[in-house]
Write a structure and sequence with these properties.
Elements: E1 3-5, E2 12-14, H1 33-39, H2 47-65, H3 84-90, H4 95-100, H5 106-109, H6 117-138, H7 140-160, H8 170-187, H9 190-209, H10 215-233, H11 242-270
Antiparallel strand pairs: 1-2
Helix pairs in contact: 2-6, 6-7, 6-8, 7-8, 7-10, 7-11, 8-9, 8-10
């Protein structure tokens, strides 16, 4: 089946070993799937770049679905804003879509949607700043798990607190901030922890200053990100293993399935 590096002890072993002969880790090669993943190049997947690409593509699509809305800004914060109808068609979430319409999958799709040029610009700036850092600390698969879990937690709390409509990656961004804080606390690095905690506090404060900001999603994202990162931070020095591949794979499948469900739901309404 080929050779792999054991995710736990970093020794070279056969990918079809039932247990690692050095550290006794069960099924380190995930029945040979680890070798398949590596041959497909999955282990080198650039999740930060992929996240930004998907967000920008969906933002462009949201503008194209209703071009007339582009020229109807209500303020500078609404410059190049897609219409509510187009973002709803693409998977905006909130109390109305989730509880009224039963579109639970929008808790995932809304992570990748944005409501204006400023909205996506600042969110993608933070993704490009934080995601590579979290990727270097925890690994690419753990990064995507943290990003997805944080976004979902944020929108769940927001929906339960009565936010009628909401969208954006800011809940996931707060989760990435929380992940960095969890890492700093686990490492005992006061300076590292303080820096990212200050950023989180500043962003929370900005959320109360600027109009239309979903602070509940920020809080929920922070909680979800800290919780998931805390679990990973107990063994972050180890390389990612089969469990992380499966977790990230499930997040990818759920994300793709969510957009397919949203597409099907929108087409059903249209036709």
């Amino acid at each position: 089946m080929g050779a792999i590096i054991c995710p736990k002890c970093q020794k070279l072993i056969s990918s079809d070993e039932p247990r690692c002969p050095f550290c006794d880790m069960p099924r380190p090669g995930l029945w040979g799937l680890t070798t398949v993943f590596r041959r497909l190049g999955i282990t080198s997947l650039d999740f930060p770049h992929l996240i930004v690409t998907v967000c920008v593509a969906l933002y462009g699509l949201s503008l194209l679905l209703d071009p007339a809305a582009i020229f109807q800004p209500r303020s500078m914060f609404d410059f190049l804003s897609p219409s509510g109808q187009s973002t709803y068609q693409l998977g905006m979430t909130g109390t109305a879509p989730v509880f009224r319409d039963g579109r639970w999958w929008t808790l995932i799709t809304a992570i990748y949607l944005h409501g204006s040029l400023l909205h996506i610009f600042f969110n993608m700036m933070w993704v490009r700043q934080l995601a590579p850092l979290v990727k270097d600390i925890f690994g690419p698969y753990r990064l995507f798990i943290i990003f997805t879990v944080s976004g979902v937690f944020g929108f769940v709390l927001s929906a339960f607190m009565g936010k009628y409509y909401t969208l954006g990656a800011s809940g996931s961004i707060f989760g990435l901030l929380a992940a960095a804080i969890a890492y700093g606390r686990q490492m005992g690095s006061t300076l590292f922890t303080r820096q990212f905690l200050q950023w989180a506090v500043i962003l929370f404060v900005f959320g109360f200053i600027f109009p239309g900001v979903d602070n509940w999603a920020h809080l929920g994202g922070f909680i979800g990100g800290y919780g998931s990162a805390y679990l990973f931070s107990r063994n972050f020095v180890q390389r990612e293993g089969p469990a992380n591949y499966i977790g990230a794979g499930l997040c990818i499948l759920l994300t793709v399935a969510a957009f397919l469900l949203q597409l099907w739901s929108s087409l059903t309404v249209l036709f």
